[in-house]
Amino acid sequence: MTTVLVPGTTAADADDLAVWPVSTRRQADGDVGVGGVALTEVAHRFGTPVYVLDESEVRARCRAYRAAFPDAHVMYAAKALLCRAVIRWVRDEGLGLDVCSAGELELAVTSGFPPERVIMHGNAKSPRDLETALRLGVGTIVIDSPSEIARLAAAVGPHGHQRVMLRVTPGVSAGGHEKIRTGTDGQKFGLSLADGSAEHAVARILSQPQLRLAGLHCHIGSQITEVEPYVASLRRVVGLMARIRDVHGIALPELDMGGGHGVPYRPGEPALDLSALARELRGALASACASAGLDAPRLVIEPGRAITGPAGVVLYRVLAVKHTGGQVFVAVDGGMSDNPRPALYGARYAPRLIGRRSPAKPTTATVVGRHCEAGDVLAADVELPGDIRPGDLLAVPVAGAYHLSMASGYNMVGRPPMVAVADGSARLLVRRETLDDFRGRDVGE
Ligand code: LLP
Q: What's the CA gap between 282 and 272, in Å, rounded?
């Protein structure tokens, strides 16, 4: 499909399209183009709701990371969004992959991703996760609990070897919501630096000849917009690396600082400054290692949201507009089954009317979904044209990460398709979930 955008269209910068993909163009007819494709055409061709993913935005973001962190390993966190196209783009752009299940790993490796460039996480890895990791030859497994050490060593067998890291908890609180903060004790991830359990686990790993400890890992949370918590965590983890050198006489070659890099969801919101993060982490690593007399380990980072989030836009069709209790509710054909983030984390979005120009004055409205609960709110108190009506299309930017990957089968609505846009054409990456899919899984009577 090829779309010629209306001449004289404006670029996205410096206006209310600031959080949209760089390729976004406003068209004279009220439509919006992304990747050279008019969004109304995507809606017509593929139906709604539909996730749209701008391939060049994803690739550009991969490149920006590699340019900012030329000496580090950049591992894309698959949990943000994974499908075969994304696997290929990330591989082409030279990134590694962070997976947290046999499913993510199997999809990646069977799509041609080199297993040695994959790191596997999980606070509760199932036997199937570990069996798949070992069978497919995953590069690194991140140990996240003491019981995993002997279990993994036994699974590797007496003659095998597996490269591992240990996930540690530095005692630093950061992240966009309580549910996505993982840097402190008292939550399920990692082994504490403060109470000595990280150090104890290191000794146990080193006593297993099959396990090769490559470094320490620390992911303090998600949707973090400040550099400072990363620097504070890095200093603490380097402290443990120095103790390991003192006690065991080994210098660990890698330090994985995880992901969590925050992005703006609405114009004017802060983003984590990537070049500041790179500069400060590099500086802090050099100085902490110099004062401990350690050779600086290689940095590893695991961005997820910041790679795919801002590359995605989700399109909905308005089904009903209701004025009640002094409020305007704009109900669309999706909801918490394609985006649970507002319900889970109170996430705020900036939806926009596309497909027509409205002469009407803006009104304050709440965009709600079609699911059977009052909490199915996609965007509360947003400005939309006062004449918003059934049949209109709404587009919500920053829908590339933790939307499709967290989508559910609630109310058997079916998960939306994902469509890639690039160079003026659109192609289906993931098809819509249909009633046949639901029926096919329902095998009992
Ligand atoms: N590394 C590890 C070990 C992680 O657990 C995560 C995310 C990442 C990297 C990537 O974090 P990112 O750069 O994408 O922030 N569902 C939540 C986010 C949960 C993040 C879980 N772990 C949301 O929608 O905000």
A: 16
